[in-house]
Amino acid sequence: MSDPAKPSETGKPAREQVIVVTGLGLPTTPASPAYDTQVLTRSQLNDLGSGRIEDALSSIAGFQQFRRSDSRSANPSAQGVTLRALGGNATSRALVLLDGVPMSDPFFGYVPLSAIAPERLASARVTRGGGSGPFGAGALAGTIELTSADAQTLGPASGQALVDDRGETELAATIAPQLGAGFATVSGRWDRGMGFWTTPLDQRVPASVRARYDSWSVQLRGVAPLSDTVELQARGLAFHDDRTLRFAGADNSMEGQDASVRLVGRGKWQFDALAYIQARNFTNVVISSSRFTPVLDQSNTPATGIGGKLELRPPVGGGHVLRLGTDYRRSSGQLYEDAISAFSGMITQRRNAGGTNTDLGLFIEDDWSLGPLTLTAGARTDRYTIRNGFYIARAPDTSLVQDSRYPDRSGWEGSYRGGALLHVGGGLAIRTAAYTGLRLPTLNELYRPFVVFPVTTEANPDLRNERLVGYEAGIDFAPSSAVKFTLTAFDNRVKDAIANVTIATNLRQRQNIDAIHARGIEATAQLSLGSFGFDGSLAYTDAVARGSGFAAALDGMRPAQTPEWAASGTLSWQPGPHWRLAATVRYIGAQYEDDLQTDVLPAATTLDAYVQVPLTDHFALILRGENLTDATILTRNQGGSIDLGAPRTVWAGVKLSM
Predict the structure, then answer these.
(1) Are 210 and 223 contacting, i.e. CB atoms less than 8 angstroms apart?
(2) In which band, very low, low, confident or very high, does the pLDDT at 11 lie, cut at 50, 70 and 90?
(3) 230, 264, 442, 610: which sits with the fewest CB atoms below 10 Å from its CB?
(4) How far is 312 from 327, CA to CA, in rounded Å?
(5) What percentage of the chain exceeds 90 in pLDDT?
């Protein structure tokens, strides 16, 4: 047995060691700032008019959802996120991680935004541009790293209860006890309400309804030390979300159960080992916009995601931080749906489609610090497979209409990134970077057709991988801890970009177009002047699509759902302890609904507000306002058929902090 009084490596007797657990992964490397990064603090994630994670991320220059709808009124399958205005087809081109685990749905690629509660988070770190490193095959447009808050940040007990002017409610609660040298957190959130009218008044019919929503999520997390340098982390997340869109009976749902375990070592040989499993499902009923009866029942879309990573940082010395690792992700799922006659109400066809995608990555990266200059270079290789793809259609009497089995595909893809960061002095730093990136088509893009009446979009089992080539340069100026400005110019090109291409009247197909080319400027400003603060961002992107063949008509046009300008500014004031007042103005420029620039979504400017007033040592009054100027926000425009975003909404409630 060891002598408890024997000095340890820190010079203290072992029995006097203070073990501190953080619940974090390994620290960022010295060259991380060489890439265009921005960190949102806990207050920036929570002091929101809406209380939704997508609105918090909207303050990041270049962040974009596929549509402007929030996670109360969007179809979940349209909740794809991207960066750099690289366009989208409802699949995420940005990698979203929660405590190191990819959050995208294994079948669709969307992110379950309503299951990510801002009050559970400590920070969000956003890196724009493609990247290698862990799970780099999903980081085509960048990476959004969300980190859960620890027990010290959350407090022993916390929660809030709010109601809005339509009678909708938001309830959240967390308990976070310290357990020995570790801690546990249990948190839950429930949002429900009758929703707002997404249909303009002059387009409403007797079948029109509000965007009803009812969603809940529960997260359990435990962190415990195994030694003074090794930490065990475990997390479980369960969620369910029901929504109704536009017409009575147009109901959809998503649900999931995620579990992960992680070992983090912070000794001389640092390591991060992670394993996770995800079970997800999605349902959707499509209602005819002419007869207002069901025409499609997507009754079941079970999907499973399994994966993990291992990263090792050996103590090489000499100013180097070396990262070696591997990661793996397997996505499998199937779609079950019934086509229904709008006239008879009878099932006309039963369909089943699905497949399995896998990606095994190997990566290496090194940061080299040379005084004020830091150099970084990294590479990864991915072994991918696209297999077991099929599409089966049967008549109501079970006779076979179509039975398509698609050949398996596999291959190797290489990616790289490199950059330099030079601290000039006086708070000024200059950075430059170049990179490539990779994204596999999702099972949804490969095998699932869909209808947003009157437009049908076909799947395409022959889709190729998307590849990104990008360059950027920027400056960071932080003359003091109270002032920071950043400016980045970038040039990103997505080759073989997957887009919904119009091939006939009211008919589109997912196809690889030649490229999406996006060039632009991103700027941020952060000021802290006593009790006042300001956070602002501005993104300008000149994006064009390049296409030939069926896609020749869109050559030179702006990609669908891609604004040219986007800006956000938040002014905050803390007049005393536990006080918080914040107002946020957001602007999103005009964008096109479709690839042929037929239907326009006009620019929109919104004003949100957040007020926290302490009532006692543990309770505070909360007032929130969304879209206080009641701006008209078009989220969809297909041939004049329009959907609207959230109108003016005012919330009031109480917050508990122990």
Answers:
(1) no
(2) very low
(3) 230
(4) 12
(5) 80
pLDDT at 309 over 80: yes
Q: Are 644 and 635 in contact (CB under 8 A)?
A: yes
Q: How many CB atoms lie within 10 A of CB 465?
A: 20
Closest CA to 467 of 384, 551, 390: 384
Residue 144: domain span? 14-657
How far is Cα 239 from Cα 253, in angstroms, rounded to an integer? 11
- How far apart, in whole angstroms, are the C-alpha atoms of residue 351 and residue 349? 6
CB 421 within 8 A of CB 431: yes
How far apart CA 220 and CA 185 sit, in angstroms, is 6
Instruction: State the pLDDT at residue 6.
Output: 43
Let me know if residue 314 belongs to a domain: yes
18-27, 218-227, 431-440: range with lowest mean pLDDT: 18-27
Instruction: Give the global pTM.
Output: 0.94
- What's the angle, vertex CA 462, arms to CA 457 and CA 467, rounded to 5? 95
| Nearest alpha-carbon partner for 237 in 367, 143, 101 | 101
Cα–Cα distance between 364 and 587 in angstroms, integer? 40
Span 583-608, average pLDDT: 93
Residue 3, in any domain of the structure = no
Q: Give me the mean pLDDT over the 67-85 stretch.
A: 89
Which CATH number fits the domain that encloses residue 216? 2.40.170.20
Calpha distance 380→435 (Å, rounded): 11
Q: How far apart, in whole angstroms, are the C-alpha atoms of residue 417 and residue 131? A: 6
Beta strand segments in 395-514, E: 400-405, 409-425, 428-439, 450-452, 455-458, 466-480, 483-495, 498-504, 507-512
Q: Residue 279: inside a domain, yes or no? A: yes
Phi, psi of 53 (to 5 degrees): -65, -35
Question: How deeply is 316 buried, as exposed, middle or buried, from its count of CB atoms within 10 A (0-12, 13-18, 19+)?
Answer: exposed
Instruction: Output the CA torsion 255→256→257→261 (10° steps).
Output: -150
What is the predicted pLDDT for the residue at 12? 45
Q: What is the pLDDT of residue 645?
A: 94
For 548-560, what is the HEC assignment?
Answer: CHHHHHHCCCCCC
9 domain-assigned:
no
Structure letter (DSSP) for residue 9:
T
pLDDT at 18: 63
Q: Is residue 8 scored above 80 in pLDDT?
A: no
- Cα separations (Å) of 9 from 14, 266, 269, 316? 9, 14, 15, 19
Residue 388: CB atoms within 10 Å: 15
Question: How many domains does one find in the chain?
Answer: 1
